[in-house]
Amino acid sequence: MSDSKEKAEGGAGGEVVIEVDDVKRHYVTGGGTVKALDGASLTIERGEFLAIAGPSGSGKSTMLNVIGGLDVPDSGEVMVEGKHLGEMRQSQLAALRRDRIGFIFQAYNLNPVLTVLENTEYVMMLQGKPPAERKKLAVDVLEEVGLGDMLDRRPSQLSGGQQQRVAVARAIAGAPAIVLADEPTANLDSTTGQELLDMMERLNRERGVTFVFSTHDPEVMKRASRLIRLRDGKIESEERRR
Amino acid sequence: MLVLKLAWRSIWRNRTRTLITTLGIMIGVMMVIFASGFAVGFSEKMVRTSTQSRSGEAQLTAVGWAKTLEETNVMSGLDERLALLDASPKVQAAAPRIVGFGLLSIGSRSRGVQLLGVYPARESKVTNWDSRLVAGEYLAEPGDMLIGAKLAEELEVEVGAKLILTGADVNTGEAATELVYVRGLLSTGDNGLDEGAAIVHIAQAQRVVGLPDAAHVIALDVTANTLEPDVIEADIAAFASDTVEARSWRQTNAMIAEVHQMMGAYMDMILFMIFLIISFGIVNTISMSLLERMHEFGVMRAIGTSPWQLAGQIVTEAGFLGLVGAIPGLLAGLGLNAYYASVGLNFSEMNAYGMTFVDPIYPLVNVPEALRVAAIFTLLTALAATVSAIRVALVKPVDAMRS
Which of A24, B1, B160, B385 has the highest local Cβ count within 10 Å? Predict the structure, then answer.
């Protein structure tokens, strides 16, 4: 890994789970080239509750996408738990996401034809867990996020906050090491957003899951153990909170 | 199980589109099952018409006679051969025939005919002439003659008319004449027989052609199923010798046999042509549905679904789509066949392969074949979705999620 001066280091001496080294991701659009990431470097340690903030177009979501192997950088390197994503095939990346990374999206993105329980079971089904085991785990995690009495509801029968709780349950049910949350509170009112953050903090604390947020939300930034600010695809600043 | 639930529920997200697509599949399956049932019924009818109206299910002839129809090439030892056939459990009936040529005349009108000399009692167990009379009665008294109703019309004669049958002695070439009386008028469906044959007692035919106590053919009704010529051929092989050939209807009626044999291939061709037409609609529907759901597929990829799992999911959905159309199509096709199998389809004006279908054609209700058709349609529907599914599955997750 290069020693870029913009590199945001974990620095607490813990085990590094994510390394982003001098990553560039440029898009060619009708209006010219957009430098979504322009030589950004970053390391994240296990158990961090990290927020990546910045104005729209600063590259927050792209950063999450390249960390999750959803997008491929034009140059630079991304490592997750010691694995070079650039060297992995699509099916290997899918297996990495399935087993080690949970995703939470701004728009919840639950499957509308599956129930709350089935949405939560889905990743475990991909992992090949037996039906009885995955059902038990899904029920446990749904109870943990306060939806134990809504197992058979469809997403359309839930409020935004409840849907995002299901998304959190889906993200953590497969026991990932890392959860990537792309503006998870953006569509929620402040009370619901705070409740959701409480819950994710608890999961971070109790399960040791590393959370990486992209966010505009001051409440998320306030609670983050480390705050990284992006601007124009580069890391502008880093602030360690605890 | 979750994969199946997801696939099943996904196809009902746009009910109207699903119902239109499945309606197309249903109609296709129904059409193919009906056409297949009809084709088999038609083919079987053709075989039975040809065997019951003329050839019998098998024939014994002198070696070489079938190729040349040489009148002097008769079978020897007729009585011993008949005794053997009558005693065999493989043979239900044996009917010797003289086959020659003659001229039927009445007044100034005359027609050349194929002359068939038969034993009436034996013949009625091999052919169905006694039940194919449209006027008059079956052969009884010496001098009685059966002719086709069409020939009677040409000769302008009715039942009871007296005609002169002229033939030539095959040995001397001298003309021989017999008086014959029209005893009955036939409509067998065999155009050659109905338009150009005269059936008389064998003794009279033997006199006309100068071959006393001889026969060219012994037509057989065998114990084996008509539609199993392999079995028939195995059963009659024992009656063949250096001087006598034993042949099943498959060999005596080669054209009919070929049509019968090709019917399966014809039907598969029709199946694929119908599916090809329907597949345009299926592929279009599936492609539209996939495009609409691209973001959802991106999310599925993001949370760990592999490209092949996603493609499998989409193909499973298409399979369900096929199944939802194929099951009612299967029931409708079988229902249609069952209905027409009871009332029949009237094709009395239709001529094909030298036959007129005087009786209705009864489609066959063949459940295994119908299941095969339904299964093929279901699989083809899934197959039609495969290319689109693979294309979607290989889209980069982030690009799919931007859709």
Answer: B385
